[in-house]
Amino acid sequence: MKVIQASEPDVVVDVVCDVCGMSTRDGEGELLYGTMHASWGTGSRHCGEEYELHLCERCFFGQTAEMKRTRWLAAMFDEEGDAILDDVAYGLVKKSA
Length: 97
Prior knowledge:
The chain is an alpha+beta fold and about 100 residues long. It has one domain. Helix content is about 25%, strand content about 20%.
C-alpha cells in the first residue's frame, strides 16, 4: 500500500508490502517494489472493480513462485509439466542489461 503525504500534489513517502507489511525502502532510501494489478470488466463477478497490490521483492518472487507451482500442479503429468519448472524467468517481460 502506498503511504501518501497530503500536499499539493500528494507525495508518496513510503510503500508498504501488502503481504508482509514491511517498508519497501532499501538501505539507501529507494522504494523497491512490484505491483500486481487487476481490472475486472464486463461479464466478471467483479465487474467494475480494480485492485492494486504492492509487494516487496521477497514477497513478489515468493508469490510468483507459488503461482508457478500452482500451474505446474495442474500440468505435472502433461508433456509440458517439467518445462514449467524449468522456466527460471516466469512472468519476466523485459530485462535491462
